[in-house]
Each structure stands twice: as C-alpha cells, then as structure tokens.
C-alpha cells in the first residue's frame, strides 16, 4: 500500500479523517496501491466496469488483513 487517503463512515460515506496513519477492524478507507517490482502484473478492473475482477484480499502470515474493491484505476 502506498498511501491511505481517507477514512469513511461506513453508513453515511462521510469523511472521518484525511491521511490516517492506520485502519482498524471494520473501518472503511480509500487507499492508493502501487506494485513494488517493475514488470510485475496483476489483473484488476474497476468495480463499475467488471465487478468480478474488482475485489482483492491482502494476506500477511497466512491471515487475511484487508478485503476490498477497486473503485478507480490510475496508470
């Protein structure tokens, strides 16, 4: 993950905090991701265009730490 942009209220989608340092369990956030190795490729699409390729999971030590969906792709 490159940067946390916003923390959002789960029910009203209002901004709670800009540039948070971390995300707690059951919080909703907007984040920016960047691939670490050049030439590395992953398959993803925006949720509006292709919902099946817009969901992702991040794992750490065998545990799922983040579930999410891709809202927008920037090249």
How would you sum up this structure, described in words?
0% of the residues lie in helices and 37% in strands. The radius of gyration is 13 Å and the shape is globular. The protein has two domains: 1-34, no CATH class; 39-75, no CATH class. The protein is mainly beta. A hairpin with a 6-residue loop joins β1 (3-8) and β2 (15-18). It contains no helices and five strands. A three-stranded antiparallel sheet has the order 2-1-3, with no helix packed on it. It has strands at residues 3-8, 15-18, 28-32, 55-60, 63-69. The relative contact order is 0.19. The model has no long low-confidence stretch (mean pLDDT 86).
Short description, anyone?
The protein is an all-beta fold and about 80 residues long. The protein is built from no helices and 5 strands. A 3-stranded antiparallel beta sheet has the order 2-1-3, with no helix packed on it.
Helices, by number, come to 0
Helix % is under 10%
Widest sheet: strand ordering? 2-1-3
Number of DSSP strand runs: 5
**Class of secondary structure makeup:** mainly beta
Q: Give the SSE order as H and E letters.
A: EEEEE
Mean of all residue-level pLDDT scores:
86
Q: Pick out the low-confidence regions.
A: none
Head-to-tail CA distance between termini: 16 Å
Residues in β-strands, percent = 35-45%
**Overall 3D shape:** globular
Compute the number of structural domains: 2
The major beta sheet can be summarized as:
3 strands, antiparallel
**Rg on CA atoms, Å:** 13 Å
């Amino acid at each position: 993950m490159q940067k946390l942009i916003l923390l959002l209220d789960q029910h009203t989608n209002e901004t709670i905090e800009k540039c948070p340092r971390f995300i707690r369990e059951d919080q909703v956030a907007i984040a920016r991701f960047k691939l670490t190795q050049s030439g590395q490729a992953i398959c993803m699409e925006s949720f509006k265009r292709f919902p099946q390729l817009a969901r992702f999971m991040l794992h750490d030590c065998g545990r799922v730490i983040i579930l999410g969906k891709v809202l927008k792709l920037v090249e």
